[in-house]
Every structure is written in structure tokens, then in C-alpha cells.
Structures
1.
Amino acid sequence: MHDKHVIDATPEQVNAWLANGEILLVDVREANEYAFERIHGALLYPLSTFDPNALPTEGRKLVLQCGSGKRSLMAAHKLQAAGHGQLTHLAGGIQAWKAAGLPVIRIDVQTGRVVDDGRR
């Protein structure tokens, strides 16, 4: 497979882009993972059913995201095979995002309630 360049973005870069409305963050994890914990503003397009033509690619730059960075790279390669150019993904995925101290929306396993760490 011909591998074009996929850009690694840091959690801080992705957070700034999201805050400015510059990107469309696409989470390629599965629905159960997304339901349990997600980045605010991320859209779910699971890798298992990933269709490059189904993504809304107009307007904002796409940034792909998963749990650790592996599946987002696979999704980037699928998009490139479908004719999309240079792509960006969140290096290290949601694990790196949380390690950087950035907020997620998650299910509290004690109560079953949704917790938005980004709400002040």
C-alpha cells in the first residue's frame, strides 16, 4: 500500500484547533468505547464500518482520533486510498489527551452518570 504522509498532532494542538472551530475531530473507536469516554466535539465513525465517502470533509480540516493512535492511522490510510490528501491524527489518541490533563466526557462507573470534565 502506498503510504502518504500522516501528520501527528499533539493533544494541545488538537485542543486549540477544537476551541477555534478549525477542525472536525473524528473518533474511529467503537460505539461502546465512545459511549464510555470521549473528547467533547468528536464525531463517531467506527473503524469497523469506516466509509471514507461518508465523512463530512467540506470546510474544516479532519483530525482522526482513537484510543492510542493505531486505529486513527489505519483510518487515515483508508481515506488516503480513497483520494484524500495529507491527513492529521491525534498522536497517542485519547490516552495521550487524558495524560495531557485535557477534559473528556465519561461515564462514572460508580454512579453510571455522564460526567463532563470540561464543565467548570
Note: The chain has a mean pLDDT of 91.
2.
Amino acid sequence: MKIIYIDLDGVVADFEKGRRNHPLSTITPYIGRPDKLPGVYEHLEPISDAIAAVNKLLNHKDFDVYFLSTAPWDNPEAWMHKRLWVAKYFNEKLVRKRLILCHHKHLLIGDYLIDDRRFNGASEFKGEWLHFGSENFRDWSKILKHLNI
């Protein structure tokens, strides 16, 4: 089985929309630090086609799928909210204990990392980094096509 890691924010969950719509987003100390907004991770909407695409991967016999996200160190509630978000949108039986919160993604061993940003070790990942939102991996249909699904 091929191991796939999937980032949450900007790949499955629409962080930018959540940031823009948060009532405190234009108030100091949150300007420039949207990751510190209270409750921002709890109420994010899914990115278009993300839930269906991830469910295809979760149910595929050839893939072992994990969510791999970075949670802000200075916002401990974000750690809990990310776990609750995954449980809200996916079958608990398929995702139980499949959320990894890590600031060093390059240390994990796997075949694919689907991530929208190069930070926290994503660009140094030893497997194949599928740069979500880039020219080659613009959306979930491109990701699934690349994975032959």
C-alpha cells in the first residue's frame, strides 16, 4: 500500500475563507497571525470536491491515508479543532487515529504528500510532494488523475 499524507488547511479545509470571514480577523493581535484567531479552525468549510476526493482515497485498497497538518503552537485549541473538523466531515471508522499534527513534515516516511504550501518541511518531503493549487495539481481532479483514480 502507498502511504498518502493530506494537509488540511488550504487542501481540504478552506482556511482563507475562514480567515476572511472571522469577526476578529482585522483586529490586533490577529492581523498577520490568522492562525491565532479563536475558533478559526473549528468552523472552516471544505474546499470544493475535497470531501468526495479524500473519501475515494480513504476507501481505496491501494492507499493508506493520513491527515498531516501543522497546528499553531500558540493556539492550543486549534489542535483540538482540527481533530473535531476531521471527525465532522469523515467517517470516524475511516479516520480514527489518522490525524498527525507535526511541524516537520519532511521527517515522515510515505509515498505522497498533498500540501498547498512548501513550509514545515513539505517541500523537503522524501516522497512525492503534490503541490495542491499549483499548475500541475490545481484541484482535486488533477490530484486523483495523477494517482490514477
Note: The chain has one domain: 2-14+46-146.
